[in-house]
Amino acid sequence: MEIPQVLRMNGGDGEVSYYQNSSYQKKGILAAKPILEESIAQLLQASELECLTVVDMGCSSGPNTLLPLWEIIETVDSTSSRLNRKSPILQVFLNDLPGNDFNTIFTSLIPNFHEKLEKEKGSKFGPCFIAAMPGSFYGRLFPPHFLHFAHSSYSLHWLSQVPEELATESGIQLNKGTICLDKTSPPSVHKAYMDQFQRDFTTFLRLRSEEMISGGQMVLTFLAQSNNKPYCKYGIEIWQLIGLCLKEMVEEGLVQESALDSCNLPLYAPSADEVRCLTEREGSFTISRLDQFELNWDVEDGNQELACDRWERGKIVAARMRAVAEPMLASHFGDAIIDDLFLRLSIKIADCLEKGIGSCKNQVISMIKK
């Protein structure tokens, strides 16, 4: 699986696009908002900046793409006013892999964003310059001592690659019958995923430390394992359901068994202890806060859960998963099975929601460059 080519959301603004199916991620961004605001306020209080340089890593393309930026602007505005300072100029970089739908961002989202900024903030707020920075955040993106603030939401549970140790030298697949870590995965597979995350997260911290000024801040939100709730044990249970659907399709002769056995997603949800330990071991950042929150799969934009029957809720959640998963799964299994696969997934999701076990653990961490 060539990660840069397939790890992307469904583009455009159609029925199965990420643009139309990203309210779960929006809810996560809003849940992390207090920590984002706190981090930006601390940064501005520490020094008076003429230009604030920001990157959003894993920005994707959709209604959430510029949501963290608007939260940053609101905090910059209120903090600058409280400190009786002129708000800094904002230099913002939107980062994602090259396959991301940057066209939608710059043709549809940013013009509307600038119009809103002018209408609500007017001339009293400094200019906001927005640019794209395609590339993996597991590589260098910026010059040394360049960034003041880095943000990432729902991206760092995606690994730089599928762990190489998931197959023997003779080609025998070790994680058979599923597409990710599962209760059926042998200990060697668990270790391979954990080791890959440790390498990737350590690399991510080291690279950002080179790019950030001393005192720069980061706020990162991603999926988490849960030690006290069995239905969130792995943090990726909804992805395990996709594996179960594919296994059923193998049994029915619709998918080749070898195709399922060789499909492993570059996905790992760490525990809070792992994140804390790796951050302290790498040594470039001091952790300010590390919080966790739980979100139901069927969260809606408002305060209420989806007000419809479980089958409809299952379809909506499955559509959200399809917006994220389809490019990866279609590249491996082909397009022909996709409709059937996500119909099956909607039924399994509906059953989980009926039992009250359809939720994910999330973690948000803020840290300061030493």
Automatic annotation (TrEMBL):
The keyword Methyltransferase belongs to this UniProt entry's keyword annotation: yes
Domain of life: Eukaryota
Pfam families hit by this protein: Methyltransf_7 (PF03492)
Keyword field contains Magnesium: yes
Alphabetically ordered keywords of this record: Magnesium, Metal-binding, Methyltransferase, Transferase
Gene3D superfamilies in the record: Methyltransferase, alpha-helical capping domain (1.10.1200.270), Vaccinia Virus protein VP39 (3.40.50.150)
UniProt-recorded name of the protein: Jasmonate O-methyltransferase
Lineage: Eukaryota, Viridiplantae, Streptophyta, Embryophyta, Tracheophyta
